[in-house]
Amino acid sequence: MRQHMFARMLRPDMLLLCAAVLLGVIDAPLKLGLVEPMRGVMVFALLGLGLNIVTGFTGLLHLGVAAFMAIGAYAFAISTCDIYPFQLGFWSALAVTAVIGAFAGFLLGAPTLGLRGDYLAIVTLGFGEIVQDVLKNLDAITKGTQGINPLPPPSLPWWGAQGFGWIEFGTSPVPWYWLFLVLTAIAVIACRNLERSRTGRAWLAVREDELAASCMGIAPIPVKMYAFATGAALAAIAGGLWASLYSSTGEPGNYDFQISILALCIVIVGGMGSVNGVLVGSLAMIGIANIALPKAASWMQQQGWMNASNVLGSPNNWKYLVFGLVLVVMMRVRPEGLLPAKLARKVTSARTAL
């Protein structure tokens, strides 16, 4: 029993959680400045977890996850902003965002899940572009390229000397960090339970062999529909949190094809079908963009090496070059990902033995 508890404490997700809690405690005293960029890492971890359900668990190549992030951001904004009649609170708006995201995933999945492979990827890619254009042209609702703002910050219930009340988040990144950490931990637990559930086992069966799964009594189309809806709900929540963090949806162009590719890179680098891998992949990919490259730019500026006339003089312009190199190295050295799923490890071991 003690050994089992010790093994659970050494799981990658538990180690990452402990490291995240420790970072939140020591960041301010040590002036590390890592709490603020880590919020973006956790938002993209949620986005990656949603894509992992569709692509990792179910084996469907999805290139339009940014569209569901955009739908979530605008659904959250319309639910909370003062210029609309709804004006819901943060938590109720986040719940509505998840429902709308799941419904959007259902609408996309219903007519397309008879497709497979490249055909499904092209349809999801087209869906992402359509969502962008619709959001740009529905000026009366989405405010076009201006985006919807300002959005109210989150609030937490509190019982003090004056009775029950609500504490609203300020501009400090620390409360946001803890909120995002709690929500990411809840999403990880939910994904793990889903993976072990009957639905999760059906997803994995469809991924490995759809024909064999159907012969065993699993209906592939409803199973895929559940995957699309669940993944879309998580992506929508990520979009809602992103909009709330910056108090604006931003323009629809912020949710372009690059976001979908970045989410796919997170899943591939971490390990397809691995919940722990998504967390590590998000830390690696978004950490490069939000932490490593800005730190490198600051250091180069201090050294006097920055040159505004030279595009290569700023490390921030190397982002996609670095992403491409990381993918090439991963596919060459460790194609199963940094933390592959158990099944992927078994397949790799079998291939190595052969």
Protein traits:
single chain; 354 residues; mainly alpha; ABC transporter involved in vitamin B12 uptake, BtuC; two-stranded antiparallel ribbon; 2 strands; 3% strand; globular
Question: How would you portray this structure in words?
Answer:
With 354 residues, this protein is mainly α. The protein has a single domain (2-349), classed as Orthogonal Bundle (ABC transporter involved in vitamin B12 uptake, BtuC), CATH 1.10.3470. Helix content is 71%, strand content 3%. The chain is built from 15 helices and two strands. The chain has helices at 2-9, 12-30, 35-57, 65-80, 90-112, 117-137, 139-142, 173-196, 198-208, 210-215, 220-246, 257-270, 275-303, 319-333, 342-353, and strands at residues 155-160, 163-168. The chain has a two-stranded antiparallel sheet with strand order 1-2. α3 packs antiparallel against α11 and α4 packs parallel to α6.
**Strand composition percent:** under 5%
- Arrangement of strands in the largest sheet: 1-2
- Which structural class matches the secondary elements? mainly alpha
Query: Percent helix among the residues?
Result: over 70%
| pLDDT averaged over residues | 86
The largest sheet is: 2 strands, antiparallel
Number of discrete domains: 1
CATH top level is Mainly Alpha
Instruction: Write down the Rg.
Output: 21 Å
Which H/E pattern describes the elements? Answer: HHHHHHHEEHHHHHHHH
* Oligomerization status of the protein chains: single chain
CATH architecture: Orthogonal Bundle
Q: Tell the overall outline.
A: globular
